C-alpha cells in the first residue's frame, strides 16, 4: 500500500461525488415517502407557481393582455386588422407580423439574441392557422410581445400563448 493511500488523502472529486450520492438518496427517500419537501423557489412539492392575468392594459391596442406565471412576466398587444402599408401590392389574404422582444433587464444576457427571432417565428407559425387572414384582404395584424421578466424554461412560451389568445380574443370579438 502506498504512503498516500495509508494517510488518507483528500480528493475534492470524491467528496463531491459522495455529496451528490447522498443528495440523490435523500431525494429518493422523500419521493418514496411522498413527502412535501420544498423546491428551490420555496414552493412545496405540490404547489403551483403563482399566476396573475389582466386584460386590456394597453388601451391603444385592439386587444392586449398581461400575465405573470412565477417569475415570468409578459405583456402582449395586438393591433389590427388595419390597412396594410404594403397596400400597393394586392393580396387576397392579410398579413400577420409577430415580434417577441425582451426588456434589457428580463434576462441576465443582454441584447436581442436568437431567442427573439426564434420565438417570433414560432409565434407566427402558431398564430398563422388561428387568425383567419383570408377574411381580411389587404390588411395587417401586428402582434407585439414584450417579455418583462423571464423565469426560464418553457414557461415563457406557455405564458406567451395564453396572453396572446386572450389579446386576440379581445381584438377580434
From TrEMBL:
Q: Which family does it belong to?
A: Belongs to the RNase PH family.
- The organism is Arundo donax
Give the matching Pfam families.
RNase_PH
- Indicate, by first and last residue, each region the UniProt record lists as having compositional bias (Basic and acidic residues): 17-39
Q: What's a single GO MF annotation on this record? A: RNA binding
Q: Which GO terms describe its cellular component?
A: cytoplasmic exosome (RNase complex); nuclear exosome (RNase complex); nucleolus
The residue ranges of the Exoribonuclease phosphorolytic domain are: 48-159
Give the InterPro entries listed for this entry: ExoRNase_PH_dom1 (IPR001247), PNPase/RNase_PH_dom_sf (IPR027408), Ribosomal_Su5_D2-typ_SF (IPR020568), RNase_PH (IPR050080)
Q: What protein is this chain from?
A: Exoribonuclease phosphorolytic domain-containing protein
Q: Name one GO biological process term.
A: nuclear mRNA surveillance
Chain segments carrying region Disordered: 1-39
Amino acid at each position: 500500500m502506498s504512503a498516500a493511500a495509508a494517510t488518507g488523502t483528500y480528493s475534492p472529486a470524491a467528496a463531491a461525488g459522495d455529496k451528490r450520492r447522498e443528495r440523490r438518496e435523500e431525494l429518493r427517500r422523500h419521493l418514496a415517502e411522498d413527502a412535501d419537501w420544498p423546491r428551490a423557489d420555496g414552493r412545496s412539492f405540490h404547489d403551483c407557481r403563482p399566476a396573475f392575468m389582466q386584460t386590456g392594459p394597453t388601451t391603444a391596442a385592439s386587444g392586449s393582455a398581461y400575465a405573470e406565471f412565477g417569475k415570468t412576466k409578459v405583456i402582449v398587444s395586438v393591433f389590427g386588422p388595419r390597412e396594410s402599408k404594403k397596400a400597393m401590392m394586392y393580396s387576397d389574404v392579410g398579413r400577420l407580423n409577430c415580434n417577441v422582444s425582451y426588456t434589457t433587464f428580463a434576462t441576465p444576457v443582454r441584447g436581442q439574441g436568437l431567442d427573439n427571432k426564434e420565438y417570433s417565428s414560432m409565434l407566427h407559425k402558431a398564430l398563422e392557422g388561428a387568425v383567419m387572414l383570408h377574411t381580411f384582404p389587404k390588411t395587417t395584424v401586428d402582434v407585439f410581445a414584450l417579455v418583462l421578466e423571464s423565469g426560464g424554461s418553457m414557461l415563457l412560451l406557455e405564458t406567451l400563448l395564453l396572453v396572446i389568445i386572450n389579446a386576440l380574443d379581445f381584438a377580434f370579438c
